[in-house]
Design brief:
alpha/beta; Rossmann fold; six-stranded mixed β-sheet; binds pyridoxal-5'-phosphate
């Protein structure tokens, strides 16, 4: 990716439509109107209180995105970039939400799309990908075997790899999560953000986004990132705790399938980013996920178990890691309707 200048002209931003494209001066495009043929109106998701008594605990409702998850941020920018580059087809591998997002935005952009998925993912995610007209490749075995099959196909077909893990333009999209929070908090950043982490597209995107704001002089500090893994599959949390490099683990089974990445390619980069913010990486107890999901639904937020895991971890670790005077934003990333 070519270096480019990032700026936040507030007076111009304020006049634009309520979508993630209001931050055009901070996005890596040469044709600045290319997004108009790709956008589904994604972004500017609500930032709301969990409940009235807790004014400093806020939820960012990214499950209200067009395809039902925060992955739309990354997919919209990545597919707009593919359009700008004039690619003829794209290929991606995913355990679900990234695949549905890439399929939807490819359909919108009129770019043929191949999605590789583990054969065992939820029927609703599979049917969503198919309905968007993508060529679906179901791979038996683990998530890692799906990734391998996708890489082999990319090499063989010489096709544009729209990978949310490797392609840096995906993170250029997820970084808008940070910009929106900054604007919604009246051009301030929160003290802490609590985010799920598997391959790290939100953690790294948010890190880049807040860093862009600080470097442009629009914010005066980085928020602390508290990243959440699922206890039965937590290679990054284990490495963080032991102060060592990330090693692959065996996924012993979790309801939080979206963060169950046994061998995260960017694991060490994620640890570096979290450490640079003074943050930490914690795990969500498996037995608390269903209660957390019901607790959120009881307040009106219907999210998938992967997202409930973030809240479960917040509840478990709040007293240890968070000062009650802090402004905390927790990401609700995926809708419960797909499960
Ligand atoms: C709802 C949801 N939350 C969190 C994640 C984790 O994102 P990442 O693997 O990029 O860290 C995913 C990934 O698919 C997801 O679908």
């Amino acid at each position: 990716m070519k270096p480019y200048h990032v700026s936040f002209p507030i007076d111009i931003i304020k006049e634009r439509e309520a979508s993630m494209w209001r931050y055009l001066e901070a996005l890596p495009f040469e044709k600045t109107n290319i997004y108009s043929s790709v956008t589904l109106g994604e972004g500017m998701t609500p930032l709301v209180r969990f409940e009235r008594g807790e004014p400093r605990f806020l939820l960012k409702l990214d499950y209200l995105m067009p395809t039902g998850s925060f992955k739309d941020r990354g997919a919209a920018v990545l597919i707009a970039k593919a359009k700008e580059l004039g690619v003829s087809a794209v290929l991606a591998d995913s355990s679900g939400n990234a695949g549905t997002a890439i399929a939807a935005y490819s359909a919108r952009a009129g770019i043929p799309c191949h999605i590789y998925v583990p054969a065992a993912i939820s029927e609703k995610k599979l049917s969503q990908i198919k309905m968007h007209g993508a060529y679906l490749h179901k791979i038996p075995g683990t998530r890692e075997e799906t990734a391998e099959a996708a890489k082999v196909a990319v090499d063989r077909e010489k096709i544009f790899y729209a990978s949310h893990v490797y392609n840096p333009f995906f993170l250029e999209g997820t970084k808008t999560f940070a910009f929106e929070i900054w604007e919604q908090l009246q051009y301030q950043v929160p003290d802490t953000v609590v985010l799920p982490v598997g391959n790290g597209t939100l953690v790294l995107g948010a890190y880049i986004g807040f860093k862009n704001l600080v470097e442009a002089g629009a914010a005066d500090k980085m928020p602390r990132i508290i990243a959440v893994q699922a206890e039965p599959c937590s290679p990054i949390a284990a490495a963080f705790k032991d102060n060592r490099q990330v090693r692959p683990v065996e996924n012993t089974g979790t309801q939080a399938e979206g963060i169950a990445i046994a061998n995260p390619e960017r694991g060490d980069q994620i640890i570096e980013a979290v450490k640079a913010t003074g943050g930490t990486i914690v795990t969500a107890p498996e037995e608390d996920i269903a209660t957390a999901q019901a607790g959120l639904a009881g307040k009106g937020f219907y999210v998938e178990p992967t997202t409930a895991a973030t809240y479960a971890a917040y509840k478990k670790h709040r007293d240890i890691h968070i000062n009650e005077k802090e402004v905390v934003v927790l990401a609700l990333c995926g809708t419960g309707l797909k499960k």
